[in-house]
Amino acid sequence: MKIKVVMDSGGLMNKQEANQLGIDYLPLQVMINGQTYMDGVDLDRDFLYDQMEKGAKVQTSLPPLGLVDELFQEYKNTGITDVVLITLSNALSSTNEKVQIMGQEHGLHMHTLDIYSTLGMEKYMAIYAKRMVDEGLDPETIIARLKESVDRSCGYLIVEDLDHLAKGGRLTPMAAKLGGMLKIKPILRVSKDTKGRVDIYDKVRTMKRAIKQTCEIISQDPQLNAKDYQIVIMDSRARGYAQYAQDMLELLVPGIEIERDDLCPVINCHTGMGSIGIQYIYRR
Hints:
InterPro entries: DegV (IPR003797), DegV_C (IPR043168), DegV_domain_contain (IPR050270). The chain has eleven helices and 13 strands. By secondary structure, it is of the alpha/beta class.
């Protein structure tokens, strides 16, 4: 048995970073004003952020199926038999389903799960899966351990611009316009409880209040502790708010490891600039 770990570009790493860890990488496509880029390959965060701040029209799509086919043909030619596939939530994208089908068509044994999330959760899952492969664990054990982490982890998003939610069908245009006028900031939850969908958990006036309330919600989870968990705070050019969230969480959950990162392009296309993501991840 020869095993490879494959992730998509939703997991806070670019192709080079993933490959350096021994993880293969499928870039989702990002269209900016009609031009197509490969997320994490020929598209970086700063370029996308610059374009979005200029009002560019952005869309996302699945990884190119031809690229997936080439990768799996290479596996077949080099004796790879099994794939541990880590992708963003099935509720957010059909990437997992499409890639599984293509792997099976090449005679590969596909092992996967719905991580009900993306971003820092996906990054942790991919790195943890690769470590277990290197330790010689079988795919069934790897998936079972990943599932335990998924079941005990959770994430929240707070967005500055409600128009992006409206474009994604989360709010009506009228509600987005009214919410913007009233300075309403929805706290969005993404976890197993929401089946990987982006659900509105609460609505708060002002960004700072939304961040404060989110940090308090996280700290009140009875499972959360500094020994077994890590927190990832992500933003798209909202450093002040991200630092405020970090300061709050360090106070509310003393000693917990906190990582900071940027929201990756394929996710920020849907959340908009000035967004904050906070995830707490169970490290098995």
